[in-house]
Amino acid sequence: MTSVLGDFVTTSSRFSRSANIERDHGDSAIAGYVPTGRALDVISRISSGLLDPAAGRTFSITGPHGGGKSSLAVFLDGLLAGTGTAEAKVAHQLLASIDPTIDERLRSGMRAVKSGRSGFVRAFATARTEPVAKTIARGLHAGAVRQLGIKQDLVPSSFGSGKSVPSAAEVRSCVLELTKGHPLLLVIDEFGKNLEHFAASGSDGDPFLLQELAELTQGAQARPLVIITMQHLSFEEYVQDSSTARRREWSKVQGRFQDIPYVETAAQSRRLIASALEQSPKIRAAAEKWFAEHRADLDAVELRDVADDAAAAIPLNPVALAVLPELCSRYGQNERTLFSFLTGAEPNALPRYLVQTPWKPGDPLPLAGVDILYDYFLESSGSMIGVADGASRWIEIETRIRDTAGLSPDQLKVLKTIGLLNLVSSGGRIRASRSLLGLAVDVGDGESSDIDGVLTSLVSTGLITYRAFSDEYRIWHGSDYNLRKVIEVARQECEHTELAALLSDALPLQPLVAGRHSQRTGVLRVFGRQFFGSAAQESTDFDPAWDGIVYFVTDPKIVCGSIQPPQDGRPAIYVVPQDVSKIREAAVEAAALNSALESAEQEGADWVARRELVERSAATR
User: Fold this and answer.
1) Diameter of the chain by CA atoms?
2) Do 268 and 37 contact (CB within 8 A), yes or no?
3) Which residues does 245 contact at the CB level (< 8 Å), separation at least 6?
């Protein structure tokens, strides 16, 4: 029987669903949770607030959909549970394994508010489009019943029925009663829905209630109360269409909460990916071997930071690992989309790749590349792509790939990889360069000549174009205008142009203020800036308003003593480089593209050719 990757690597079921703060409780809901840097920051702040009310006990956590806020709340539920419960033991064991200092500090904070063996009353509620009093009342009732039993009498049953909206005074009185004998954690998820109701209904009680509860956490008589709201936007953004007075009221409330942005870094997301994959010893050994053989390749394409998680994330290709967090942020719902790809049942999700890809120990590792991500996002996140900022670019690339017939499997794989890299590229290290594509794509027998052959064939058919200046391949939309020939002719014309002239056209220099001199003397001195070709070039007249001039010399062999100074005696500074070969290449490329763009506009070239030239020209600036 043929073995497959899925026999040696699996995805953790812990990441297979979204968290719900009202539903998910107990040790099984916490097992496998990975406290991220943002989560540790929140826990640390809560610990400080428990130890000293002046540090604050009210928090507003703001972050995008699927960013892990609800999972954090479920983790807090376990951390603040009774010390003898299974969930508390699992939660504190997880926290201590990541940061024992924060774990001990949180335990000290719990002792400071006398949580005892019973822990906190954890009042969790997911808001609906309703008054905040109703949401809080529902959470208080559910928390009291879970902690104290169905017969508890501290929170009236009417709070849990949802049939009426309790007054602010009733909610405040209930919180006071609860906190006389029990510390209380109040968490409101999707708090933006409360704010939307407030903005639409015109009710005035909501900010007053939340402000009163926040005040209970302050001062010498501070109650053992922690309040956390979780939403996608700041308070003010939800009520921006309300009157100035009403916006001012909510800004006062938000001022009583510590606003914590909850957005994970790409590095933290990569660690989450690695933690979601459970590797057997055999594939782990193969992954370590692959990593050792390709470490230099990762360094060469500036993926050193990805290298830390590359082996643990096998079978994901390191380039796919590098771009996946960015894709989930731009075209998905952050961690929710991330874990859907890693654990979902969709046809193009990672689990399907694992069960369909043959592998046995000793064979080369088949890696899930960027083309797999392209297929997954296209099929499973189409609705999110449609409303993303880069939707038009994605649609253009997808249309070009879809409408191209007769491609070989290797050509299609390379084309999808280039397309996706184009979508996340910003001209930095993650771009469709030749070296990155060599690492990202396995074609043929994996030889360098194979990828070069595929790239050459795609360029020759007009499907992709190569931008030499930025060392990047781009999906080409096709044009009847002979773009390559026009650029090459323009490049040949610019080769013999004086470098100073090329630079002056491509990069006009603005005057420069002698800042330190002006600060020291109080006199403003302004120097002009110009490019200067050779000693044979005379210092030209310059603006009489300038106090001097800075010449950027483009001839490294120039002898400064042979240059004629300005005739009017104003000072001139000459900056002489050691080597201008790279600068000349860039200047020729920029001038050629500008010339080609002018030619294209004069000749009435189609929009595809003009836009390509505009993008290339902008990239050379």
Assistant:
1) 99
2) yes
3) none
Task: Name the one residue in this structure whose structure tokens are 């013999």.
Answer: 496
Note the pLDDT of residue 119. 93
The pLDDT assigned to 217 comes to 92
Confidence of residue 390 (pLDDT cuts 50, 70, 90): low
Point out which residues pair with 185 in neighbouring strands.
122, 226
Q: Residue 473 corresponds to which tokens in the numbers above?
A: 């391949």
In one-letter notation, the amino acid at residue 568 is: D
Q: Could you identify the residue written with the tokens 């209380």?
A: 184
Among residues 186, 183, 182, 176, the alpha carbon closest in space to that of 136 is found at 186
- The long-range contacts involving 533-542, CB below 8 angstroms and separated by at least 24 positions, are 533/498, 533/499, 533/500, 533/501, 534/558, 535/559, 535/562, 535/563, 537/500, 538/564, 539/563, 539/564, 539/565, 539/566, 539/567, 539/572, 542/566
**138 with 159: CB under 8 angstroms?**
yes
Q: What is the b/e burial string over 578-613, where b = at least 16 CB atoms within 10 angstroms of the residue's CB?
A: eebeeebebbbbbbbbbbbbebbeeeebeebbbebb
Q: Is the model's pTM score more than 0.85?
A: no
Residue 454 one-letter amino acid: V
> Does the pLDDT value for residue 448 go beyond 60?
no
Q: List pLDDT tens digits, range 276-303.
A: 888 999 999 999 999 888 888 888 888 8
Token pair in block for residue 5: 């990757």
Beta strands of 315-467 (E only): which ranges?
A: 464-467
Higher-confidence position of 491 and 72? 72
Per DSSP, the residues of 425-467 read -SSSSSS--HHHHHHH---TTS-HHHHHHHHHHHHHTTSEEEE
Q: How far apart are CA 19 and CA 275, in angstroms?
A: 17
Tell which residue, 236, 269, 234, 261, has the closest CA to residue 63.
Answer: 261
Residue-averaged pLDDT of the chain: 84
Give the integer Cα–Cα distance in Å for 35 and 358.
34
> In angstroms, rounded to a whole number, what is the distance separating the alpha carbons of residues 476 and 466?
9
Between CA 499 and CA 158 the distance in angstroms is 82
Burial of 501 (0-12, 13-18, 19+ CB in 10 A): middle
Lookup result for tokens 């939340």: 210
Cβ-Cβ contacts under 8 Å for 460 (sequence gap 6 or more): none
Structure tokens at 405: 């017939």
Q: How far apart are CA 301 and CA 304, in angstroms?
A: 8
Give the angle subtended at the CA of 175 by the CAs of 169 and 180, to the nearest 5°: 130
pLDDT at 386 over 60: no
pLDDT tens digit sequence for 478-516? 565 777 788 888 888 888 888 888 888 878 888 888 888
Tokens at residue 496, please?
A: 């013999």
Phi, psi of 502 (to 5 degrees): -60, -45
Q: How far apart are CA 411 and CA 457, in angstroms?
A: 8
Q: End-to-end alpha-carbon separation of the chain, Å? A: 58
- Please, are residues 213 and 169 in contact by the beta-carbon 8 Å criterion? no
